[in-house]
Amino acid sequence: GAVVSQHPSRVICKSGTSVKIECRSLDFQATTMFWYRQFPKQSLMLMATSNEGSKATYEQGVEKDKFLINHASLTLSTLTVTSAHPEDSSFYICSASPGQPHEQYFGPGTRLTVT
Amino acid sequence: EDQVTQSPEALRLQEGESSSLNCSYTVSGLRGLFWYRQDPGKGPEFLFTLYSAGEEKEKERLKATLTKKESFLHITAPKPEDSATYLCAVQVTDSWGKLQFGAGTQVVVTP
Hints:
The complex is a heterodimer.
Chain A: E1 4-7, E2 10-13, E3 19-25, E4 32-38, E5 44-51, E6 57-58, E7 67-73, E8 76-81, E9 90-97, E10 105-106, E11 110-114
Parallel strand pairs in A: 2-11
Antiparallel strand pairs in A: 1-3, 3-8, 4-5, 4-9, 5-6, 7-8, 9-10, 9-11
Chain B: E1 3-7, E2 10-14, E3 19-26, E4 30-38, E5 45-50, E6 56-59, E7 62-66, E8 70-75, E9 84-92, E10 100-101, E11 105-110
């Protein structure tokens, strides 16, 4: 149990285009979802926290207009990278929590490459 | 400012050679300390959560311990399949669910 999926697993896009990444909790309802970014050889950095039906809370330094997060249902959150640039190339990972703060299950990640 | 520091950055072990990874932390208030395993190109896989000093947890060849300032992940008689990056993360009491990660320790176990 407690499976989180992400789609796509890899995406390559041209500079200036937008990319949407989906995060789904497959066998539980996720009241809270988190989005992380991981650059090569570095650790995970939290970008934002989203609760179903409300606006996401972004970490300091993360541009909310560039990284649009929608948590429309208890099983789906999306991250849209708008007007992507090469510096946005990274590994994006989501996690989902069914309700307890110590319970958090990670997705397999999405590799974004912006050319 | 909350900080999480892992050492060493990288560790190369022979199969069967036991060792320990360190995670030192400075936080305003600790709700929990988490250990994850991450394989290349994949998301973190949960290993343990520790909540209070003196707590220990074990799973197969791994054992995690916690003090008021640091946590250790002991790998006993490792096998090549234990090769991975091990991540430590803290959750502080005034931030619901948010995890602050250390940089990780990359472990390579050779036959």
